[in-house]
Amino acid sequence: MFAKVAEERSFAGAARTLGVSVATVSRAVSRLEDRLGARLFNRTSRRLALTEIGHSLAERATRIYCEAEAAENATREMSSRPRGLIRLAVPMSFGLRWVAPLLPDFFRLYPEVAIDLHLSDAVVDLVGGGFDAALRIAVLPDSSLVARMLCPIAPLVLAAPAYLARHGQPRHPRELNGHHCLGYAYRSQRDIWRFTNGEGDEESVTPSGPLRVTNADALVPMLLEGLAIAELPEFMAAEYLADGRVAAILTDWSLPVGGLYFITPSARTRPAKVAALAEFFIQRLSEPAWRS
């Protein structure tokens, strides 16, 4: 406020420029003078003049004001057009299969945006970890404030034809207790397969087998070699089902269907770069290829 008064040579002019009252500007300058222990202006009823100390301070104050104004304008521009760094957390297998192949198109559309892609199956703390956004696969309520569901993702229980030829086809979930079933460590509610059927029956199975992993891709070799049964999300299972290397079993039963969510810490403060990424994923992942 002192810088604007020095520039305008008027409390009223500074107040108009800053959009505040004359009294607000006057009180602010008085507080500054009290803190410095010196007068900055000589005031008369008709004119306002800088004192010697006021002259020495005005140049620096004006420079500080201009730097602050430039910083504010740059920040406003950054929030209004997509530019800058996005820290994005994505599950490992999904990110490698379905996010990384989309990034060239995103960067062609938004060349001023950079992405720090964090790939991990562990659920990250968006706020504590300093992330701008995340793609998360889970059973979550859809919230317009912090989460946007892009598409459903169903889990499938799979076995290779060779495994079924040797061990037979399970007809009921409880029969899985006699089979080698591979485990996944990052399941949201312990490593339990919770089945339901069309008649409302429920059955819970704890997979028991020679391998438990923190990334579902590590299950695939055992599955394809016909050594065990595994549960995989459909975005992973689709290619193996399509060429017949595995078959879905217990198809009269289903596991809880989750969804692919785009999550941000707060929708109200979402900058343009994050909004652009959200819209891009909505366009590209709402009708993904694996569902067809």
TrEMBL record:
It comes from the Bacteria. Pfam families: HTH_1, LysR_substrate. Belongs to the LysR transcriptional regulatory family. GO terms for biological process: DNA-templated transcription. PANTHER family: HTH-TYPE TRANSCRIPTIONAL ACTIVATOR TTDR-RELATED (PTHR30537:SF5), HTH-TYPE TRANSCRIPTIONAL REGULATOR (PTHR30537). CDD domains: PBP2_CrgA_like. This is Transcriptional regulator.
